[in-house]
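Pasting as-is:
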Amino acid sequence: MISRLIRRISETGAPICVGLDPMLTHIPEFILSRAYEEKGETLEGAAEAVWQFNRAIVDAVADLVPCVKPQLAMYEQFGVPGLAVYQRTVQYCRAKGLIVIADGKRGDIGSTSAAYAAAHLGSVQIGKSSCAAFDSDMLTVNPYLGSDGIKPFVDACNAFDRGIFVLVKTSNPSSGEFQDRLIDGKPLYWRVAEKVVEWGRSSMDGEWSNVGAVVGATYPEMIGELRGLMPHTFFLIPGYGAQGGRAEDLKDAFDRDGIGAVVNSSRGIIAAWKKDTYARFGTEHFADASRAAVLAMKEDLAKVC
């Protein structure tokens, strides 16, 4: 799987992931009004607005980027209608040639992790039929429960040619409350990184592993540390742009060939139409503003990879 992502990054020249995290406040009023008129101010109406918004964004950027990252919580908040739109979004993106990274941060043990893996990466056996549920390409995974919680996901990677990104050092301000705590003289995120390398050895795809790591852009000094610890682990980097991460902070994530990471931007792209920088596009052309934001991000990242 990871070789497919690397190939798409090379083809687009953009190590960029677009986060499809559509809060209703990100959606222009004319889309909301149209959806509510059709389906009411209901969960169904909200989900319809999300779908119309997502489709326009994807149409505008699909030729520029290798992948998208829908955040499951943004769909789950709208219940079953939201999950139906999530599934529809995944299918639409994959039909456009985009790699889909499901941002669910799933993790449990035994049969529960296996069920999460089946739902998002693999398939479930129903009688004589094997049926895929959400059918994403990759999934973010929480390592807190240890190897018991990760193995089912790695098994799914190997069985279905999929990938995972394990939370190692996240971009949020309070991440250090646990992740930076010293364990036998080393921070916990180092210990997690060492396990990611171990887990990744059983799912190599060329020089890189299908078991990647989430490493936040907001802690640039740690990016270099973690690249040294995980030379064959691909990074998914959140925190660029709206959270304060800058291109120059990311140079150590990439190898000498400019390979090694994909950088996510969510509201910096999908809500670009609300920024003064892109006001010229107007509300009606919000998707064109998103395209312009991707092009600007691509130019910015070209400085370091």
